[in-house]
Specification:
It is a single chain. This protein has 217 residues and is mainly beta. It has a single domain, classed as Clam (outer membrane lipoprotein receptor (LolB), chain A), CATH 2.50.20. The protein is 11% helix and 46% strand. It has a twelve-stranded mixed sheet with strand order 7-8-9-10-11-1-2-3-4-5-6-12, covered by helices on one side. The longest helix has 15 residues. The protein is globular, with a radius of gyration of 18 Å. The two termini are 23 Å apart.
Length: 217
């Protein structure tokens, strides 16, 4: 779960040749950002892949996330995680337990999947790697390099962007430990109908004996 959230936020070792941000990449990323911010809400169905290059093993799971501004609701691996932009509630369904934490907006490795579609805007340099064709569709490829690579557990974040609509298609976090984390956005649906109550905790909707761990300061 931690690595999924890091992938959402990072989700490299910056070579001296890339000291300046790539102009072509910047134009594409700004278009991705403006397109994304034009939507009132977004629903994303995704596949999350852990690729262990050392052991030559892959593990794939599916999930869905709803986004509205800095609010989100994530369903993944028996967990329901939601936030109103200030507080995060993590509901572990099997354990019948809810953990409450604050959103730490100053920590770029904290839980805040709401930023997945604009992760490049802070703390990264970037480079346009070209275009590819996959299943009849054209995509832009852009690599992100952390400005402070020694502080990160990953070396590069690779983005694949749909050329026709500037929707993010996949995010790949290349781990320094030989394990890569890939987020494939299988379905990207903007302006879906949501209600604000889905991003907050309503005790009346849960069993009265559910365990609640409040970890807020």
């Amino acid at each position: 779960m931690k690595k999924l959230l890091l992938t959402f936020m990072a989700l490299a070792i910056v070579l001296s040749a890339f000291a300046q941000k790539d102009e072509e990449a910047r134009k594409i990323l700004e278009k991705v950002s403006s397109t994304t911010k034009s939507y009132s809400t977004i629903r994303i169905k995704f596949k999350y892949i852990m690729d262990n290059r050392i052991e030559k093993m892959k593990d794939t799971t599916k999930g869905v996330i709803y986004l509205k501004g800095d609010k989100f609701k994530l369903f993944f691996k028996g967990n329901e995680i939601f936030s109103d932009g200030t507080t995060v509630w993590t509901h572990m369904l099997d354990a019948d337990e809810i953990t409450i934490t604050d959103v730490d907006k100053d920590d770029d490795e904290s839980l805040n999947p709401a930023n997945i579609l604009t992760i490049y805007e802070k703390g990264f340099k970037y480079r346009f790697m070209g275009e590819i064709k996959d299943h009849g569709k054209m995509y832009y490829q852009i690599d992100l390099y952390p400005e402070h690579p020694k502080e990160k557990s990953y070396s590069i974040v690779k983005l694949k962007i749909d050329k026709t609509n500037y929707h993010l298609s996949s995010v790949k976090m290349v781990g320094k430990d030989g394990i890569d984390y890939i987020l494939d956005l299988v379905e990207f649906k903007p302006n879906v109908k949501v209600v604000d109550s889905m991003f907050t905790f309503d005790p009346s909707k849960y069993p009265s004996d559910i365990e609640i761990n409040d970890m807020r300061d």
